[in-house]
Amino acid sequence: MKFMEELSLFKEKICVYPFGRSFVPVLNHIEMMNRAIEITALVSPKGWGLVGNTYDNGRLHVASDFKNIPSDIDILLIPGFEQFPFFEDKAVERILEVVSQFKRVISYHKFSKKNEELLRMTLHNNFCLYETFPDTTGFKIEPTYASERILPINTPILAIAEMLDGTDAFEVGLALRAEFTNMGYKVVQIGSRPYCDVVGGNQIPNFMRYTTLSEVEKVFQFNRYVKYLSEKEDPDLIILNVPDAIQSYDEKHTVGFGILPYLIFKAVRVDFLIVCSIFYQDSPEIFEIINQACTYKFDTSVGLFHMSGLRFDIEKMERSKILYGEYLDSDTVDKYIEKSKEKYKIPIMNLKNNANISAACELVIESLSK
């Protein structure tokens, strides 16, 4: 039973704020929504380009404020969002203005210490921060020692890693899980987003980020965690969304140095690896370099690349510590891949195009059957 299922015996209604692009995959796979909850309102800042959009066949409309949302909403859900300068302070101001409309606030965002204390002082026990959520899988951390070994996991593992955040890895994981499920396979997903439980998955356990465990202990514990899920759920496949970028972009944009992915790949043996990339035009050699890096660092080669539409503005990035980019539409990515796919030694697809999901699943099945 997931944490969200334990909130209430009755289906609870949720408003998502600030609703951004990173939460869109949840709405695109709303059929997998946790049965204990129902999303009934979406509120997004005007500058994020989503106000007026509709989701779930027109049922959900994105609003710019809280004025016209339904009055019977139980929970304000705060997804993780980018740390734009000053935005967090403004978001907290808006939350405190409307918080009396909700029974409680659940946050998947890691607030600054100042804002977290402000929210706790105002909301008291009605404020829930995801890093304090109880683990509901039943897994218990046990002492391990450096002399111990990595335990084998009998379930095949499909890992989905990303070159950088924003390259669709979470959405790709949900789409593949849905397709494998429709094909009759039992799938357990360990998601890179903390709100993966909203769509019936398991989040990367908090001990990988928010504990005093050493790096060696994290490797052992994550290995035990995945083995525990494998034996408890007895799935045909585990889809593992690897959190954080697999490497730094450059010296200015370090994005976690690829440390957490390294620990995860040391904890489990991956049977098939999909890497989600930014949009590289006419650069097949870069994908060869990425494959070699994965082979040597993670002990697994890339079986498939997903090329996202994320393209960077190099000139702006050279003048700043911020990653500046734009998103090309899916049709543009499809046309480029179709024109250039013969240049690539490793299969490359646009997995945001649903027409390619079945082909990707067949590729995984073929590889696992060898």
Topology:
Layout: E1 12-16, H1 24-28, E2 37-43, E3 54-55, E4 60-63, E5 75-78, H2 87-98, E6 104-107, H3 113-123, E7 127-129, E8 157-162, H4 169-182, E9 187-191, E10 202-203, H5 215-233, E11 237-245, H6 259-267, E12 272-277, H7 284-298, E13 304-307, E14 310-312, H8 314-318, E15 325-327, H9 330-340, E16 348-349, H10 357-368
Parallel strand pairs: 1-2, 1-5, 2-4, 5-6, 6-7, 8-11, 8-12, 9-10, 9-11, 12-13, 13-16
Antiparallel strand pairs: 3-4, 14-15
3D architecture notes:
It is built from ten helices and 16 strands. The strands form three sheets. The chain has a seven-stranded mixed sheet with strand order 3-4-2-1-5-6-7. Helix 1 links the parallel strand 1 (12-16) and strand 2 (37-43). It is of the alpha/beta class and 370 residues long.
What share of the residues does DSSP label as strand, in percent? 15-25%
Task: Summarize the amount of helix as a percent range.
Answer: 25-40%
| Tally of helical runs | 10
N→C terminal distance: 35 Å
Question: Low-confidence segments, ≥5 residues, pLDDT <50?
Answer: 5-9
